[in-house]
Design a protein that fits this description.
Length: 126
Amino acid sequence: MSEELLRELRRKWLPIYVLLLFSLVFVLLHLAINYVHTGNVAYANWAIPIVFFTLYTAYALSKLLRTKIPVYRYYRVIKCTKCDYEVTEEIKEGDYLFREHGKCPKCSGILLVSKIYRKKSFKGVL
Ligand SMILES: [Zn+2]
């Protein structure tokens, strides 16, 4: 599953799960209070499937919150062809391997993009 899709799903479903969980807890409280005041068993019977549904919603919400989205940052290593001068910085749009990158500040040799790599980190809820 792509990160964008995961992020979009999370953004869409998080408020729905939270609202559903609150309303289910509210309904359960309502049923419990009615059962205590009236003693009618029908309230307790209705509470049983709602308890399961509430637990399932809480599980789905916790699963949604636990899922972490990987975020990638891309870096390039610019290296001089003559001396040992080397710089690592974030990549710019349009970079490619062995692209010329101006003159070396130490020996005025040619600078080339010698490596391109990415680092993975995980993002939290949103
Ligand atoms: Zn150099």
